[in-house]
Amino acid sequence: MIDKLKVTLVQFEPVPKNNKKKNLEFHLNKIDELASTGIQLIVFPEMSLTGFFVHQQNERKRHWEEDAETIKGEMIQAIVNKSKINNCYVVCGMAERDEREFDIYNSTILIGPEGVIGVTRKLHLPSAEKLYYKKGDVGEVYSTPIGKIGMLICYEAFFPEVSRILAKRGAEILIAPSSIWKGGQSGGIGAGESKQRLFSNTPLIRAIENQAHFLMCNAAGGQFLGEAFGRWERFGESKIVNAQGEVLAESLSNDTEDITAILTKTSLLKSRSDYMFFNDREPMKYGDLVK
Question: What pLDDT shows up at residue 186?
């Protein structure tokens, strides 16, 4: 990666259901605003462009027809154009319409001045997401002028195998756009203080064990997910953690907020010289993990 990389996580509340234009306008304005201050990498939350489903009759059909977008569509092209104008890199999320009717992926897209660089489609689908989204795969690692980037999505941060595969593929920066819910009556899997501890500590652990910078950009606020589910509230609390496990910047609320820090190549190299985790692995002994 480059010696110093200035990054911002944009913690905000995506507007769901037929409000894509408002979300896109927010993205485009924010890219202009942040790039003008020298930000080189801008990360938006999970489903930042489209929002999630609203659980109701025939919602998968409606979500596919009205909310979901294609990678080659106008929304992504608008962000590509902004990235070119501002010479910056952007990570954003959306419901991606598959060619097969009513199949939708929960996707995260990496965009740069050169265009769409890569797409990661969420493999691990929690809770009600299984009703609406098709499973993807562990993402690839993309070499860019600012560094080697691997992406995972929300719930997947809790699966150490995903980050480890990306690190093994050479990732220097792990990016996890998220919409992590508070659990219990506030919605989503898990509940209470145990989920708060899991959520707070996971970015630090993933960074240290994989010797890579870890960016978790969680969405703000909440979303009404239909009469059956009610309104689910998010944690917010996005974090930028360097490869040594130091929290460089974080949100302490679930309000709309920009979180900015500088990632350094020095920290990355020091983490890899302090411990020889990858040299000392014995993968031939780990067969039980895939049985």
Answer: 85
- The verdict on pTM exceeding 0.85 is yes
Tell me the two tokens of residue 160.
Answer: 């150490």
Helix (H) / strand (E) element for 5: namely strand 4-11
Which residues form the domain of 263?
Answer: 4-290
Extract the tokens encoding 124.
């691990």
| Alpha carbons 5 and 264: distance in angstroms, whole number | 6
| Residues constituting the chain | 291
Instruction: Give me the number of domains the chain comprises.
Output: 1
Distance of alpha carbon 42 from alpha carbon 226, whole angstroms: 31
Tell whether the torsion through CA atoms of 93, 97, 98 and 99 is positive or negative: negative
Q: Which long-range contacts (CB under 8 A, 24 or more apart) does 288-291 make?
A: 289/161
Tell me, what CATH number does 23's domain have? 3.60.110.10
- Look-up of token digits 């911002």: 8
The one-letter code for the residue type at 3 is: D
Report the run of H or E that residue 163 belongs to, with start and end. helix 160-168
Question: What is the distance between the alpha carbons of residues 109 and 131, in angstroms, rounded to a whole number?
Answer: 22
81 burial (CB, 10 Å; 0-12 / 13-18 / 19+) is middle
Q: Which residues of 187-199 are buried (b: 16+ CB within 10 A; e: fewer)?
A: bbebeeeebeeeb
The answer to whether 178 and 122 have CB atoms below 8 angstroms apart is: no
Q: Which residues contact 89 (CB under 8 A, 6 or more apart)?
A: 40, 41, 42, 83, 110, 111, 112, 113, 117, 144, 146
CA 223, CA 181: separation in Å to the nearest integer?
10
Residues of the chain falling short of pLDDT 50: none
Element (H, E) at 7: strand 4-11
pLDDT value of residue 51: 93
